[in-house]
Amino acid sequence: MRKAIAAVFLMAGAALATPLAAQNFPVKPVKIVVGFAAGGPTDVIARIVAQDLSAALGQSFIVENKPGANAVIATEAVAHDAPDGYTLLFSSLSLLVNAVMMENRIKYDPFKDFAPISNAAVLPMVVVTSPETGIDSMKELIVRAKAKPGELSYGTPGHGGSAHLAGAMLENATGTKMINVPFKGNGPALAEVMGGRVTFMFYPIIGIASHVQGRKLKVLGVGTAARHPDFPDAPTLGEAGLAGFEATAPWVGMLAPAGTPAAIVNRLSEEMRKSLARPETKERMKQLGAITIADSPSEYAAFLKKDYERWAQVIKASGVKAE
After folding, report:
1. Residue 15, in any domain of the structure
2. Does the pTM exceed 0.85?
3. How many domains does one find in the chain?
4. Which of 30, 98, 149, 258 is the most buried (most CB within 10 A)?
């Protein structure tokens, strides 16, 4: 009888402890792990969010860069960390793509091992080419690709990344065959496109306006639902007959290890959404070419499922393999 009563008190104590811990959270610095080097879009946006969370919650949110293996190292580390809210992952499309292409080689499950907090933002891409190619529209690009199978090329900042998958998606949608030319970063890839040695590429919308004005690049289409104010004369990919290419915009968002108390996850999500709603933060995001999302944990979870299914289909249809 005494044991039974003790068990009841223990259960009651545990039930009370979780909300209390969440209410007091955080009581020490929080680590946000990024699987890419400092200075990239995932890192920069993580630091914006971390700064706001530090101010709002009265504890330091520290970004730790742990690059390597297309973010696998960082993702696996957080997946198996303590589910207490003090180690978080600021992730990207790699979370899902690695799970598709390296299913039997990675040590995490993107759904079973993580609790989604909030999708921070997406970074739309534009299709660019050199004026020297003589290609003036997506229609002309596709016609030429069909006429010369395996001759046109698209540059990417690496194998299996968002630009590579966008190119593969374009091939699938148009029934064309083109060559993926991977580089170590967006900069080297763009230089080869401007030089006319690579036909085109999907490129983040930020940082190319000066090249377009200087007639070193031509924008063939933008991966946004409506025309972008920076390139008002460029049609959306939807207008060019390529529906659904808004989904090629890489996303960045926050996750916690699975098992993190829901109250902590919800508090982090609420504060993150407040951060992303601030006018100053929105302006900084706009300068980065990012569109804020700031959704709830359940909305983010539903998005991840849908995004996984989309890219799994693209990868299967195109035959993209892990390096």
Report:
1. no
2. no
3. 2
4. 98
